[in-house]
Design goal:
The protein has 275 residues and is α+β, with helices and mostly antiparallel strands. The protein has helices spanning 6-12, 22-39, 90-96, 113-116, 118-126, 135-150, 177-180, 200-203, 271-274, and strands at 43-51, 56-63, 72-76, 83-84, 110-112, 132-134, 152-154, 158-160, 166-168, 186-188, 225-230, 235-240, 246-250, 257-263. Helix 3 crosses helix 6 (135-150). The longest helix is centred in the N-terminal third of the chain and has 18 residues, at 22-39. The radius of gyration is 19 Å and the shape is globular.
Length: 275
């Protein structure tokens, strides 16, 4: 969610019970504008919080002119001092998938891969590396995975130019209440997968400038999203059942939208059996 609109946005997603203390809000209000200035970001988003056993990671994302370009991610343990995270790699994602259970809350904590997956540990040892994974690496991979799988935006909020760059749509005035209640009105804000598999006939009705992302209506498993009207029907809230703690909000007929994550960083792998 937009850092400048943080207090109002947190109030809109507070129906799920998650939020920040007044001290944390004040700290973020002071540190995020400085973060934007020091790193020369065009925009800063407060991504959310991953709760560990001994502490919490507060995450922010910095954006450049092209909204589809990889985002810079930073984490803080106190909402004041921020550390830049390295970009996620395929190897990081593969190693992080081996880890189960809660985060510790200490970025220097090391997981012993030999105790979790002997085969993966052997491959690292053969490559001359220690069979350990730092929690910071797991944090990078988890943020990337959540953004890819459940980071969403309303249809029409962003436009794709003929040159391939993605920008905010200045003419976007929000979805109507009728459209806002449909899963097909929301897109995954990441590289499309299903769109490439569509036939030319299916693509004929799509607008290439706005329909360049994957819609939520084809998500697997079906039923992995909960849509609710809150605040007397003035706010549409989507909650992910796959990544519990991810909440998206949109105020129909306005430009107000965003998502935030307050959770443990654990994927709900039991979801197919719960539906």
């Amino acid at each position: 969610m937009e850092a400048l609109a943080l207090p109002a946005a947190l109030a809109l997603v507070a129906g799920g019970g998650a939020g920040l203390s007044p001290e944390r809000r004040a700290a973020l209000g002071a540190s995020l504008p400085l973060l934007q200035r020091d790193y020369r970001f065009e925009r800063v988003w407060f991504w959310g919080c991953i709760q560990g056993l001994r502490g919490a990671y507060y995450i922010a994302e910095g954006l450049g002119p092209n909204r589809a370009a990889p985002r810079s991610r930073l984490y803080s343990l106190n909402c004041l001092d921020w550390s830049l995270l390295t970009p996620a790699t395929k190897e990081m994602l593969a190693l992080a998938e081996q880890l189960k259970g809660r985060f510790q809350g200490d970025p220097s904590f090391e997981y012993n891969l030999a105790e979790i997956n002997a085969e993966a540990a052997a491959r690292l040892t053969e490559g001359g590396r220690e069979p350990v994974i730092k929690e910071e690496t797991r944090l990078i991979a988890t943020i990337e995975q959540i953004d890819r799988e459940v980071g969403i935006v309303p249809r029409g909020a962003f436009v794709k130019t003929p040159l391939g760059s993605v920008h905010e749509n200045r003419h976007f005035e929000g979805l109507s209440l009728l459209e806002a209640k449909k899963l097909s009105s929301y897109f995954h804000f990441t590289e499309p997968v299903n769109l490439k598999n569509k036939t030319l006939l299916e693509k004929a009705d799509l607008d290439p400038s706005t329909d360049f992302l994957d819609s939520l209506e084809h998500d697997i498993p079906r039923g992995s999203w909960s849509i609710q009207l809150e605040k007397g029907g003035t706010v549409v809230v989507l909650r992910s059942l796959l990544w519990l703690g991810l909440t998206f909000y949109h105020v129909p007929m306005t430009k107000q939208f965003g998502y935030v994550y307050f959770g443990t960083g654990e994927k709900n792998l039991d979801l197919p059996f719960m539906l």
